[in-house]
Amino acid sequence: VVELLTSPGFRVAAHLENDLRPLQFQGGLNPPFQSPKAILLNVPPDIRERNSNEEPLRIVSSRLGGVFPDGLTLGYIDELERSQDGLFQSGIASIDNRLLSLREVAVLIPLNKESSE
Question: Residue 93: beta bridge partners?
Fold first, then answer.
């Protein structure tokens, strides 16, 4: 099964650049002809959206998920709001444009030792 970063079922462990606390990055419901967005969950409560004169906060992959290496740029925080539980924040992120312009990818499939014998 291959899922796109923008697919609603896609979830990956992530963190902010220069902040190793984990958060969840997942695909969103993206209407056609609009820039795709991702959903952020479990964002630490002390993280703030950027001020108008600052660069957006960069979200990168985390090795905690066991699938992707640490530090791949996934996107940038657009907006945050306190979750209903009050312990974390949730929000919306823009997906990195470089990921949206991929034309070709390779899918690596592990060989089953039993079938190769």
Answer: 38, 77
CA dist 8 to 25, 44, 73, 82, 104, Å?
11, 22, 19, 22, 21
Beta bridge partners of 38: 27, 93
* pLDDT band per the 50, 70, 90 thresholds, residue 14: very high
CB count in 10 Å sphere of residue 83: 15
Structure tokens belonging to residue 2: 């291959």
Beta carbons within 8 Å of 60's beta carbon, 6+ residues apart: 14, 15, 16, 17, 70, 71, 72, 73, 74
pLDDT of residue 66: 80
pLDDT tens across 29-42, in order? Answer: 888 898 899 999 99
Cα separation, 50 vs 48, whole angstroms: 6
